[in-house]
Amino acid sequence: MSFAPLQSLFGIVTPSGLHFERHHQGWWDIDPSKHRLMINGSDASMLKTPKVFTMDELMRLPSVSRFHFIECGANTGMEWGNVAVPTCQYSHGMLSCSEFTGVPLKILLDMAGADYKRCRFVLAEGADGSSMTRTIPMEMVESGEVLVAYGQNGEMLRPENGYPLRLVVPGVQGVSWVKYLRRIEVGDKPWGTKDEAIHYIDLMPDGRHRQYSSIQECKSVVTTPSGGQVLLDKGFYNISGLAWSGRGKVRRVDVSVDGGRNWRTARLQGPVLDKCLTRFNIDWVWDGKPALIQSRAMDETGYVQPTYRQLRQVRGSRSIYHNHAIQTWLVQDSGEVKNVQLS
Ligand SMILES: Nc1nc2c(c(=O)[nH]1)N[C@H]1C(S)=C(S)[C@@H](COP(=O)(O)O)O[C@H]1N2
Ligand SMILES: [Mo]
């Protein structure tokens, strides 16, 4: 596990060497000349022709390149109960954004002759020790958004990010972006694999479990000034941060410097892309007194990022995953910035 240093990054692209990493059983060293991707059906009637692709075969097919964020469902998870970590690298750094290059999975399923009427789900499986397996709804594949990717930021994927192949599932939590991808199965119901039964499940206040909460909801964070940083003097500062939504584009970001009493609308820096990080900036003159800095994002569906109080009303406080509440940074009169939570 390693976290992207969001407080030190500019723009929206995460340099590949600074991408966050999450491995359920270490990273895998794969020889691309021996790697295969198999496409099969849960039973023989679901696909006309099961296929096995080599890397060379995949790289001959029509490809696309698209910018998307990836966020682990556990990002900001430590903060559910109270303030847990000092910096935005550790509170929000299971988040990265890249240009991914690959083949839409739909093309491979078309080549294999999938029966889309019956097969409403796909299972993706990784070749690492965890053999990570996740169910993905077929609508996402049919939209053409799900990619079998081999490229990231203009080069081949790095070993830590799934070389030579990973699934890209825009807007969906990181765990579904299966790395070291070796197999896709099509079927008529979710598989409920061990990875889906024990990880990334939300314990709701009524004691029930929410299992397939896969879309990452609208969220934002101010990256400068942020926890652990120090403002050296009063005067002008550019408040800058990142906003994103698994449901589409970011429409607006508001920023408060008084803990949510007053809000001003930030400038969105282009490009503003679908299911991608969006950079925002706003001018601020610090008067040297304590300030509570927050950002609140809204996506193109009109959904507004909640406060902790609003989120806990729906989700309680015993969750681990999928925390997208508004973050607060306290600028103290010394200039030191601290992670705080407002109730
Ligand atoms: N094969 C495989 N795929 C995997 C994982 C894994 O452990 N094995 N981890 C998942 C999780 S939980 C996340 S958050 C992302 C992390 O991707 P990254 O390491 O490229 O940031 O990969 C996902 N895909
Ligand atoms: Mo994850």
List keywords for this structure.
5-stranded antiparallel beta sheet; 10% helix; binds molybdenum atom; 6 helices; binds ligand MTE; 5-stranded mixed beta sheet; mainly beta; 343 residues
Structure summarized in a few sentences:
The chain is mainly beta and 343 residues long.
The stretches of 5 or more residues where confidence is low (pLDDT under 50) are none
Beta content comes to 25-35%
Helix content, binned percent: 10-25%
Spatial sequence of strands, sheet with the most strands = 2-1-10-5-6
- How does the helix and strand content classify structurally? mainly beta
N- and C-termini, Cα separation: 30 Å
Biggest β-sheet description: 5 strands, mixed
The backbone outline, from C-alpha atoms, is: elongated
Query: What is the average per-residue confidence, as pLDDT, rounded to a whole number?
Result: 96
N-to-C order of helices and strands: EEHEHEHEEHEEEEHEEEEEEEEEHEE
Question: How many E-type strands?
Answer: 21
Catalogue the ligands: the ligand Nc1nc2c(c(=O)[nH]1)N[C@H]1C(S)=C(S)[C@@H](COP(=O)(O)O)O[C@H]1N2, molybdenum atom
Rg, Cα atoms, Å: 21 Å
If helices are DSSP runs of H or I spanning 4 or more residues, what is the number of helices?
A: 6
Describe the structure.
There is one protein chain. The chain has 343 residues and is mainly beta. Helix content is 10%, strand content 34%. Strands 2-1-10-5-6 form a five-stranded mixed sheet. Strands 3, 4, 7, 8 and 9 form a five-stranded antiparallel sheet that branches. Strands 16-15-19-20-21 form a five-stranded antiparallel sheet, with no helix packed on it. Strand 7 and strand 8 (155-156) form a beta hairpin. The longest helix is centred in the N-terminal third of the chain and has 8 residues, at 105-112. The two termini are 30 Å apart. The structure holds ligand MTE and molybdenum atom. The ligand Nc1nc2c(c(=O)[nH]1)N[C@H]1C(S)=C(S)[C@@H](COP(=O)(O)O)O[C@H]1N2 binds next to loops.
